[in-house]
Amino acid sequence: MIATRPGAATPTRLYPSTTATFDGDLDLIAIEHAMNGEQAQLTRGERIEAARQLDNRGIHSTEIGRRLGVSKDTVVAWRKTGWVIPVTVPDPEPIDIGGATHGRSGYTRGCRCRTCKDGANAASKAAKARKRAAA
User: Fold this and answer.
1) Which carries the bigger pLDDT value, residue 106 or residue 68?
2) In contact, 16 and 49? CB cutoff 8 Å
3) Which long-range contacts (CB under 8 A, 24 or more apart) does 70-76 make?
4) Residue 111, CB half-sphere, CA atoms under 13 Å: how many?
5) Whole-number mean pLDDT of the chain?
6) Residue 94 contacts residue 112 (beta carbons within 8 Å)
7) CA distances (Å), 9 to each of 1, 5, 16, 125, in order?
8) What is the DSSP string of 1-26?
9) Distance between alpha carbon 129 and the CA centroid of its chain, in Å?
């Protein structure tokens, strides 16, 4: 048996849609759970959509943040940007550098793959650390 305080009304359940379960990449069932303060795994776009729908219902930014697990400032920032859902852009494919192998530092000039970028950053940091140690 679920106990409630005498005279307390059951809260009204919020629904993002009456019939659809998906809207593009948005899982409306997960959004529904989050809107009602229940545990749900949401993508960033689903969080923004849930926040937009809660805001349209007149719910305060602090309460929206509590229900979605984000700060009030995040909700305010989403509102200021017009509830724009970010577009995910995959990393660009590495450019063909003519079959050259990755250099000793993990970087080959002109290559934009993650391995080369990380290797170049690590080599740069190591060189700066050596200069600091020598000084």
Assistant:
1) 68
2) yes
3) 75/51
4) 21
5) 79
6) yes
7) 16, 9, 22, 61
8) -----TTPPPPPPP-S-SS-SEETTE
9) 34
> How far apart, in Å, are the Cα atoms of 18 and each of 29, 46, 97?
10, 17, 53
Distance CA 115, CA 27 (A): 34
Whether the model clears a pTM of 0.90, i.e. scores above it, the answer is no
Q: Which pair of structure tokens corresponds to residue 69? A: 């697990």
Crossing angle, helix 28-35 and helix 61-68, to 10 degrees? 120
Nearest to 50 by CA among 88, 89, 87, 85: 85
- Indicate the Cα dihedral angle 77, 80, 85, 89, nearest 10°: -70
pLDDT in tens, 17-47: 667 777 778 888 888 889 888 888 888 889 9
Tens of pLDDT, residues 95-114? 555 555 655 555 556 666 77
Contact criterion met (CB below 8 Å) for 47 and 66: no
